[in-house]
Design goal:
alpha/beta; 7-stranded mixed β-sheet; binds pyridoxal-5'-phosphate
């Protein structure tokens, strides 16, 4: 059986380093807001080439606190791709603001930047782009629109650590960027973790205050904050992961290259990378004629797959009857709807064997 993913295979590649780092943090007797976090924040900011990285407990909280730090709340609107994981939208709705969805492109599966400008209203307070599946979205076009309308850009970088648009790393061109270090992500902790990155001193300072109950000085709570801190053991693990980030990205890029070359089946649309972008293939999304039949055929032939994501946020149960829910979303956002109902992600992870890669190609071609 070819597994869809294996965190164990990835862990085994660097287990000695992970265990040393975890033990170092455990034995230090310092578990929250300590030297491991400080070191990782400094190193990740340096990796991107930005001024600030503020470590947080998850990518979801990174999105929530980025929106909050921008002063966005009830009555405000934030533009967001219709085709994304729900956490992008939770970042908006958890602040009482409303998402305004923009449809996806049918080839790169990313937000259609040509449709962003018509979505802007006088209530729009920010534009959020999501570099989904590992591919950088069109930052040239987005920056042009944002500048014209004087709007901040929020980048959801949960799936794209190390990818770039026109040579500039994702998470460096927007006003504030939100990273997830969920274990499966291109840079993953051994538990939940996330961060925001920015060149804006004030935004970094605000998120630092918000992650710690909304206080800068102990027991002086100036804002309604949260507890969103990134702990020392996870920060130590992330320092190991960061050292190997490019290496692991390259392993997946190589597997993707083999898929792109080896898979030849008219029923399977392979991922398209914009010539201005790089793709770190967090996922390998294909578009197929029949999602269910394709998944079943692959499983029957020993290949596990997944779907990202079967229910778009605009159709989520939790948003029914709210301004974030669109029962007619299928007609309003046809490309995002088609992706949700036709996308299948093939196995791709560091630690995947060459034999497994060959099996996937063979079985997909037989479909
Ligand atoms: C994983 C993910 C998130 C949420 O990150 P968590 O760390 O799981 O909270 C947000 N946006 C996208 C696109 C993601 O893939």
């Amino acid at each position: 059986m070819v597994e869809y993913t294996s965190l164990k295979a990835n862990y085994d590649l660097f287990s000695k380093e992970y265990e040393e780092a975890a033990l170092r943090a455990l034995r230090s007797g310092w578990y929250i807001l300590g030297p491991e976090l400080e070191k990782f924040e400094k190193d990740f900011a340096a990796y991107l080439g930005v001024k600030h990285c503020v470590g947080l407990n998850s990518g979801t909280d990174a999105l929530i606190l980025a929106v909050r730090a921008l002063g966005i709340g009830p009555g405000d609107e934030v533009i967001v791709p219709a085709g994304t994981y729900i956490a992008s939208v939770l970042g908006i709705t958890e602040n009482g603001a409303d998402p305004v969805y923009v449809d996806s492109l049918p080839d790169t599966l990313l937000m259609d930047m040509d449709k962003v400008e018509t979505a802007i209203t006088e209530r729009t307070k920010a534009i959020m782009t999501v570099h989904l599946y590992g591919q950088a979205s069109n930052m040239t076009k987005l920056k042009e629109i944002a500048k014209k309308h004087n709007l901040p850009i929020i980048e959801d970088c949960a799936q794209c650590h190390g990818s770039a648009w026109e040579g500039k790393l994702t998470g460096t061109e927007g006003t504030i960027s939100c990273f997830s270090y969920y274990p499966t992500k291109p840079l993953g902790a051994l538990g939940d973790a996330g961060a925001v990155c920015t060149n804006d001193d004030e935004l970094a300072d605000k998120v630092t205050m918000l992650r710690n109950y909304g206080s800068r000085v102990k027991y002086h709570n100036e804002s309604i904050g949260r507890n969103s801190r990134l702990d020392e053991v996870q920060a130590a693990a992330l320092s190991v992961g960061l050292k190997h980030l490019d290496e692991c990205n390259n392993i997946r890029i190589k597997i993707a290259g083999k898929y792109l070359e080896g898979i030849k089946n008219p029923k399977v649309q392979l991922p398209v990378t914009d010539p201005h972008a790089t793709h770190v293939f967090h996922l390998f999304p294909v578009i197929v004629d029949d999602q269910e039949a394709f998944q079943k055929f692959l499983l029957d032939n020993g290949v596990k797959t997944a779907v990202h994501y079967p229910i778009p946020p605009f159709a989520a149960e939790c948003y029914e009857g709210t301004k974030a829910g669109f029962p007619d979303g299928k007609a309003l956002f046809p490309n995002a709807y088609r992706i949700a109902t036709h996308e299948v992600s093939l196995p791709i992870y560091s630690g995947m064997t060459d034999a497994d890669v060959d099996t996937v190609i063979e079985v997909v071609n037989k479909y």
